[in-house]
């Protein structure tokens, strides 16, 4: 007979305090994989970047306001989605942009993700020079549609 651990659910504030108590968070294999792709492309990588009480998988200092999260199957859980949403809202309130990919996307398309992030940051630099009202539609197109096409 196999023993399976019980899933324990905690509220968001408890989860945040647990995040705060991490002494030395360890990056996941997929974070190391994608971080390695950024390193190969000549970028410095920070793993488990702390923003307030939250940790994010990757931060590339060359892109100062960008955080990267890599989601495994546990992120499909409803409670985990709420936690992720809370983390993103908090990071956004602090001036960060969070980009998310799945483990599968990282393992199959790591180099393309690096190319996409570079293109995304160049695009953001260009649109920051334009009137905010004129950038909403192109920005949504780039972030929502372009990534799907890019990873194919």
UniProtKB/TrEMBL annotation:
- In Pfam terms, one family for this protein is DUF559
Query: Which domain of life does the UniProt lineage start with?
Result: Bacteria
Kindly give the InterPro entries that the UniProt entry links to this protein.
DUF559, Restrct_endonuc-II-like
Q: Where is the DUF559 domain?
A: 64-117
Q: What is this protein called?
A: DUF559 domain-containing protein
Q: Which organism is it from?
A: Aneurinibacillus danicus
- What lineage, starting at the top, does this entry show? Bacteria, Bacillati, Bacillota, Bacilli, Bacillales
